[in-house]
Amino acid sequence: MPSSACLSCDVCCRFPERDSFLRPFFTADEIGTATAAGLPPALFPHPDGSQIDLVPNPDGEGYVCPAFDCATSQCRIYEARPLDCRLYPFALMWDAMHEQVLLGWDTKCPYMRDQSSPLVAQAADEVAGWIEQDARVETLVRYPRLIGRFQEDVIVLRPLERVTERLRQGRMQVRTQALTLGDRERMEAALAVSAGVQGTPLAAASFAYHYIWRHRVTYSWAVLHDHLCLFADCPDGLFMALPPLGAGPLAQPLAEAFRFMRERNGDSRVTRVENVPEACINEVRALGYRATAKEPDYLYEASALSDLSGESLKSPRAACNRFIRERGGILEPYEPRDQRACVSLFHEWREQKQRAGADDWASALLADAAGAHETALSDTAELGLTGAVVRVGGRIRAYTMGLWLNPSVFCVLLEIADRDIVGLGPFVFREFCRQARAKGACWINTMDDSGLPSLARSKQWYHPARLLPNYIVTEC
Ligand code: SF4
After folding, report:
1. Protein residue with least CA distance to atom 5, ligand 1
2. Which of 42, 160, 247, 436 could form a disulfide with 193 if both were Cys (CB 3.0 to 4.6 A apart)?
3. Residues 353 and 401 in one domain
4. Is it the case that residue 31 has pLDDT exceeding 80?
C-alpha cells in the first residue's frame, strides 16, 4: 500500500462504534511491543490478548484507535502495529457457516477498489503463502479471534487450507444455524420443556426478547445433547444468550457448549452463559460453574397494576387520572399501518430523552434501541407480540408491545410515550396491564433496568412484588 493512498484516506483506524468488532486485536506479544512503544497498558482489557479500547474521535463523530494521530493520519506505533493492522486491507475471516478460514479483501478500502484484478491476485498469493507458514498458523491457533466473522463486504480471495485444517484438529464439529423468524416455534417448544426456565420466567426466556436485537448481535443455535443452545456473536466473541434449553440435566449440554465457546473465543473472558434463572443455579453450581448475579427482572401483580389502588400507588394513579381528565384517549390495538407513526414517535421520544440529559450509557442504549423497536413494529405477528397505541388529538402519542412468557405471566417488552404529555406513560402502562389481566395474566414482568438509575426509579414507582434473580454463569 503506498503511504500516499493511506494518508489521504479516512477509513482505516476510525470506527463508528466504541465496541466495533473491527477494532484491532493484539496478541500478548503485540501488547508488550505496543506498550513499550508508548501505548498505556490500560487500553488492553486482557493482557493475554485482546482488542484495543477505542477512544472518542477528537475531530468528529465515532471513535478512533488510540494509536492513531488524527492530525497527521499516521499510526504512532506503525513499526509495532499488530498483525491485524499489517494485513489490512486483506482480512482473515470464517465463511458464513464457520467451516473454512478465508483470505479476503475489505471493499471498505478505497485504494483496493481501484486496483486491477491481476495485481490484487498476485498480492493475495503472497499474503496467503505468508499466512500459511508455521509461525503464523500457530499464532492463529493460539488467538482464534484474529479470524473475524463472515462479512459480506469482504471479497473472498482464497481459502486458507492449512489454517483451517490446523484449527479444526481435535475440535468439536458443531453445526450452528443462523436464528431466523422460522425458529420461533422450535425455541418456544424447547423453552416449554426446560424445567428450570419455566415457573416464573425471566423476560429473556422468549424468542422476541433476543430476536429484536439481531441488528446488534448475530444469533445462531445448535443442538447439543438434545438441548437447543442459543449463541450470540458480539464484538468480543461468542456467548450463550440462555442456558441450554430442553428436558433433562444440564451437565452434558453445558459442558459441550462451554467447550465450543472456548474453541471459538480462545482465552477471551467473553465465554459465558447469560440469563440463567434462579431455578438452575443450584444445579450449575453443583457442576462446578460460577454464577454471578446481574440486574434482576421486575415482577408485579397484574391486579395491583390494573387497579393502582392504595397509598403506595397514589402517584401513578394520580398521573393516569390527570391524563384522562386533560386529554382523554383510549388504548387501541396496534395495527401494521401504525408502524410509520410509531417509528417517528420513537425518534421524537429519543430526542426528548437526550434533551433531558441522558448519560453516555443511556445514549448508547437509546441509539441501539431504534433497530429493536423497528423490528418489533414490523414483525409483530411473526414474533408473537401484542401491541397497542394511544392517540391524542388524532395522532399516535404512545405505543407499547408485549408477549406472553407463559399463560400467567405477561411481559411488557417496549413502551414509548410522548414525554411532554403528563400522565400518558402511566396511562398506557396501566391500560396494557389491564388488557393482559383480562386475558389471564397474574403477573407482569417489565424486564430489568439495564443498570440505569432513572429506569430503576420508574420501575420502583410501581412497587414490584418481586425482583427475579438473573445470573451469568462462567467457568471457574
Ligand atoms: S494500531 Fe495503528 S494501524 Fe492499527 S488501527 Fe491503530 S492506528 Fe491504525
Report:
1. 13
2. 247
3. yes
4. yes
- Asked if residues 274 and 241 have their Cβ atoms less than 8 Å apart, the reply is yes
Does 77 share its domain with 93? Answer: no
Residue-wise over 424-458: b if at least 16 C-beta within 10 A, else e?
A: bbbbbbbbbbbbbbeeebebbbbbbbeebeebeeb
In the reported structure, the alpha carbon of residue 82 is separated from the centroid of ligand 1 by a whole-number distance in angstroms of: 8
Whether residue 407 sits in one domain with residue 262: no
- Where among 122, 145, 171 does a domain terminate? 171
- Ligand 1 geometric centre to CA of 167 (Å): 27
Span from the CA of 226 to the centroid of ligand 1 (angstroms): 44
C-alpha cell at 330: 383510549
Say yes or no: 350 and 452 in one domain: yes
| Same-domain status, 357 and 431 | yes
Residues 148-183 have pLDDT tens digits of 888 888 999 999 999 999 988 877 778 889 999 999
Determine the residue of 9, 13, 35, 63 to mutate for testing ligand 1's pocket, defined as the one with the most ligand atoms within 8 A of the Cβ atom: 13
> Does any domain span residue 292?
no
State the residue range of the domain holding 347.
Answer: 298-469
Is the same domain home to 366 and 308? yes
Is 182 within the bounds of a domain? yes
Angle, vertex CA 256, rays to CA 252 and CA 259, nearest 5: 140
**Do 166 and 186 share a domain, yes or no?**
no
Rounded to the nearest integer, the mean pLDDT of the chain is: 91
Segment 429-437 mean pLDDT = 97
476 located within any domain = no
Pocket test for ligand 1, best of 43, 44, 50, 75 (most atoms within 8 A of CB): 75
Q: Decide the pairing of beta strands 443-445 and 409-417.
A: parallel
- Å from CA of 91 to ligand 1 middle: 15
Q: Which three three-digit cell numbers place residue 388?
A: 397497542
Q: Is residue 293 part of a domain?
A: no
Among protein residues, the one whose CA lies closest to atom 4 of ligand 1: 85
What is the CB < 6 Å shell around ligand 1? 12-13, 24, 65, 67-68, 75, 77, 81, 85
Which protein residue has the closest C-alpha to ligand 1 atom 7? 68
Q: Are residues 5 and 117 in the same domain?
A: no
Number of domains forming the structure of the chain? 4
User: Which atom of ligand 1 is nearest to 77's Cα?
Assistant: 2
Q: Are the C-beta atoms of residues 278 and 429 closer than 8 Å to each other?
A: no
What backbone phi and psi angles, to 5 degrees, belong to 158? -150, 145
CA of 68 from ligand 1 middle (Å) equals 6
